[in-house]
Amino acid sequence: MMPFQAIAHKYDIFNAADTDSYADFICKAFEMADVPVREVLDLGCGTGIITLELARRGYDMIGVDISAEMLGELRAKPGSENVLLLMQDMRELDLYGTVQGTVCTFDCLNYLSDTADLKAALSSVALFTEPGGIFVFDVNTAYAYEQVYGHNCYVYEDGGDMLVWQNFYSPSTKKCRFELTLFETTESGYSRADELQTQRYFTERTIKKLLGECGFDVIGVYGSVGGNALSDTSPKAYYICKKRGF
To answer: Is 219 helix (H, G, I), strand (E, B) or coil?
Structure first.
């Protein structure tokens, strides 16, 4: 099963995010571009949390995701009619032209299984990014996998519905398995849906190496969208990169 098939319709409820602050961070990053940023690719756009906010801020948005269910949720939202939506694998992008900015938020890159897949995705982004353009993304850190996820279990409630999130992290493989169970109330009681997801931890050294090989210079790596320095207890690392060429 692809990620976010069974629980796509509950993603926004159980994955609340500070959209405004993240969008502010992205817009400031775009100011570092050597070209005016007009067209923006949201890679792994999901339900469009960031896509639609950037569209509201005046960018021409392209949303790419591999999940038909997540794209379906996006299409049902006001404003989605102004966004070009494509169901594609991020490792094999096929856009209609280049963009000046790309974003990949909410640890989407961590769903890639190994460094070969990560390099394929970064190469795809580079292929469709104009020289001087900006690439902004985040990934989960070692601290997130070892301390936040680890072997911990989390329960989220929304009215009568409940999501149980069980985590299993293996330091040897650098992979984290998420076992998700969604219980939803129905007229006859409740329904149950199960989904298994897997993420991979990539070190900062590996990410920077692959970015360089794909034609990107790393402008900065931060521990928050507020621009705080990355630390040993930062659950996410936020990267701002520029496509070489100027």
So the answer is: strand
Q: Are the C-beta atoms of 49 and 17 separated by less than 8 Å? A: yes
CA distance 146 to 176: 9
> Has this prediction a pTM greater than 0.85?
yes
**Tokens describing residue 8:** 């796509």
Q: What is the pLDDT of residues 109-151, one digit of tens each?
A: 999 999 999 999 999 999 999 999 999 999 999 999 999 999 9
| Half-sphere exposure in the Cβ direction for 55 (13 Å, CA) | 21
Residue 208, burial from CB neighbour count under 10 angstroms (0-12, 13-18, 19+): middle
Per the structure block, which two tokens stand in for 154?
């989390």
CB proximity list for 173: less than 8 A, separation 6 or greater: none
User: pLDDT tens digits for 149-176?
Assistant: 999 999 988 888 888 999 999 999 999 9
Q: Is the dihedral of CA 24, 32, 131, 38 positive or negative?
A: positive
Q: How far is it, in rounded angstroms, from Cα 203 to Cα 174?
A: 10
